[in-house]
Structure formats: C-alpha cells, structure tokens
Write a structure and sequence with these properties.
Largest sheet: none
Distance between the termini: 23 Å
Number of strands: 0
Number of helices: 10
Order of helices and strands: HHHHHHHHHH
Radius of gyration: 21 Å
Number of domains: 1
Length: about 260
C-alpha cells in the first residue's frame, strides 16, 4: 500500500536498491515501447492521410511524448532522488495518464465520447487523495505518525489537496487553451474534442463555466469518498502503517 513508501535514509536506500526490480523494469519498457509505436502510427497516419491539421498532429504527438515521460518518472525518482513510488500508486497514475493522454487526446476519445472527460475527473479525486497520502509519508518520513494520529486533519488535508490540485489543473488547461487554441476546458458547444476546427462554435454565459465547475465538483466527490473511507478506517490504517514499519526494520536488520 502507498503508506509503505518513504524517503529512505542511506542504509535503507542501499538495502532497497538491492531488491530485484527486473520485472517492473520490463513491464515499464514494454509499456513505453507500446506507447511509442501507437504514437508514431497515429501521427504518421494523420500526416499521410491529411485528416488532421498540423496543429492537431503536433498536439496529439505531444500527448504520447508526455506519456513516455510519465512512464519513466518513477525510475528517475528512484535512481536520482531516492524516492520510491509505491507500485499501486504508480500503476493508478499511469493508468489515469494512459486514459487521459493516449486514449483521451492521442486517440481523440474526448471527441468520440462526450462522457470521457467526466469519467476521468471522477477518478482524479480518488487518485489525488492517494497522492496526498503518499506525499505526507514522503515529506514527513518518520514523523508522519503525528499527522496520522489526527484523523480529522488527515481528512481535511486529503480534500483540500485534491481540490487545490484540481484547481491548478484547471488553471493549466485555461492557460494551454489560451496559448494553443485548444478545447481542454470544453468551452465549445459543437465539439468535445481537444482540437478546435474553424466551423466550431463556442458556448456563452453560464454554460461556458459548466465544464470547469463540474470537474471541480467531481474532484471533490472523489476526494470525499477517500476521506470518508480514511475517517472510518483510520485506526486500521495506523495499525497497518506501524506493522509495515516493524516489518521494514526487521528486513533492514537482516541485511
């Protein structure tokens, strides 16, 4: 579970580094190669057939590049900064990124399915709460027990972190739309695709705010679900945390 990951001291890092990482590395390389092949195929197809503008081709290509960067991010964090991303959290993040970047933008699922964007934002609240739990553990290291003991603070932090990151994401989408002329914030009435065509028409008035506000509400809903779970199961979470700490100590003593 994500609570089991911390910034390792030097001795812990050496012991952890000796653990086999071959299977995870192989899976990561396969996924990277798959995303690369899909990206090259789609970009080449769009360029050869002339079914997309130059802006759309570049935009879709950037999504695949960003996905490859995310695939390599856990290895960079582990090797360069000695921060271990829990496998479960890493898998959830990569799955979300794949559905958003590769399927959503790269393969135009946003344009094909009007509900695709809402589905991802409903998931993002849960994902961001998991990230918040991990960050607490990484930043606080051995002192995080003081935060875990206060379940109300933990609930508040999870919700506020998810909402804060959701708001930051909306700011980034607004900035990107303003610079690149895209439709990330779904303010167009005639399309849900990220790419705007010359004959598309924009929403106006209160309707233009619908996508942004709905996204934030979904972020809040997902974070609240995780927060309620954490509130109800707080004692079990703390007990599991200390069990993992004791297991880690025993493993280090055996090295």
């Amino acid at each position: 579970m994500m609570l089991a990951s911390i910034r390792h001291p030097q001795r812990q890092w050496r012991a952890h580094k000796q653990q086999p990482q071959g299977k995870l590395r192989n899976v990561n390389n396969i996924l990277t190669a798959t995303v690369f092949v899909i990206g090259v195929s789609i970009v080449t197809y769009l360029a050869v057939t002339g079914k997309a503008t130059a802006t759309e081709i570049v935009f879709r290509g950037m999504q695949f590049i960003l996905m490859i960067v995310l695939l390599q991010a856990p290895s960079v964090l582990r090797l360069r900064y000695r921060i271990e991303v829990p496998p479960l959290l890493s898998a959830v993040v990569l799955l979300f990124a794949f559905t958003a970047l590769v399927l959503g933008d790269g393969m135009d699922f946003y344009g094909r399915f009007t509900w695709w964007d809402k589905l991802l934002h409903a998931e993002s609240g849960v994902l961001l709460s998991m990230v918040a739990m991990w960050l607490i553990h990484v930043i606080m290291a051995e002192n995080d027990k003081y935060i875990y003991f206060n379940k109300y603070f933990l609930v508040l932090f999870l919700i506020m972190f998810s909402l804060g990151m959701g708001a930051l994401w909306e700011i980034l989408e607004y900035t990107y739309d303003s610079i690149a002329g895209t439709n990330s914030q779904q303010f167009m009435e005639s399309t849900t695709s990220s790419i705007i065509l010359p004959d598309d028409t924009a929403l106006s008035g209160h309707a233009a705010l619908c996508d942004t506000m709905t996204d934030l509400i979904l972020d809040l809903a997902g974070a609240t679900l995780v927060a309620v779970y954490g509130l109800i199961n707080h004692d079990k979470i703390v007990e599991r945390y200390y069990l993992l700490v004791e297991q880690r100590k025993q493993q280090l003593q055996a090295v």
